[in-house]
Amino acid sequence: MSATVRQFDHAPYQHVITAEVRAVAEHAVAVDCTVFYPCGGGQMGDTGMLRDEAGHSMPVVDTVKGEQGLIWHRLDGELPAVGARVELELDWARRYRLMQMHTAMHLLSVAVPFPVTGGQMTPDKGRLDFDVAGDALDKAAITERINGWITEDLPVSVEWITAEALAANPELVKTVGVAPPTDGGQVRLVCIGEIDRQPCGGTHVARTGEIAPITVKSIKNRGARNRRITLEWQPTGEGGTS
Q1: Is there a domain that residue 206 lies in?
Q2: How far apart are CA 51 and CA 36, in angstroms?
Q3: Measured between alpha carbons, how far is 86 from 194 in angstroms, rounded to an integer?
């Protein structure tokens, strides 16, 4: 069985697609192509709606990766049969917020130039863990730097390189102990202006100016060398959104 086509890799703003059901499991279906991002890389799986040809709607409550490159959509309702044509529609407001936050996480990794040991995000906040020994990190300075790049409205683009090219340029990988995602020997790079270029399989906005202003909510010690930095949207009244 062929892998699910990851439409979001090339068209992250597409939020509706027609697909064919390829496999059915308990409470979930896999399709031939999808705009739904599966949970991974710290980004939550997409949610939304699936509609069958009879017009019945079923909520998609999560999206996850499966074997052989399949992407599974977990449903709350009766499952369509294999071979059925369905329409998948994202909860776009939630996805777009995740795209904003994921791009903000990349900016954080530039503002704090240390190895990344972990990360996670929701539509409302995101955090990265850094391997930092003895360095004083300033919340206000990091916030100002990230919001400066947001104000600059830098372009965000994608390019593909071979796994061999990545191996020859290991400095592109910021995460510790996590291999970048590959697709047939190709590695997807997300590039932000001239300031960042790193492997990533997640979804991002097209320009940093689309990100609402953020604030560094906290910097916490999680061990002798681990610093956890959490970003949140600036509260309403401070130039951002709640």
Answers
A1: yes
A2: 14
A3: 41
Kindly state whether residues 208 and 155 are assigned to the same domain: yes
Domain with residue 137: its CATH number is 3.30.980.10
Q: Which of 210, 213, 216, 218 is nearest to 241 (CA)?
A: 213
pTM metric for this prediction:
0.92
Domain limit, last residue, from 90, 124, 159: 90
DSSP β-bridge partners for residue 128: 119, 229
Tens-of-pLDDT digits for all 242 residues of the chain?
789 999 999 999 999 999 999 999 989 999 999 999 999 989 999 999 999 998 899 999 999 999 999 999 999 988 999 999 999 999 999 999 999 999 999 999 999 999 999 999 999 999 999 998 766 899 999 999 999 999 999 999 999 999 899 989 988 999 887 777 776 788 999 999 999 999 999 999 999 999 999 999 999 988 777 899 999 998 754 433 43
The residue behind tokens 């990766």 is: 65
118, 40 Cβ separation under 8 angstroms: no
d(CA 168, CA 103): 25
Judge if 84 and 132 occupy the same domain.
no
Bridge-partner residues for 214, per DSSP? 233
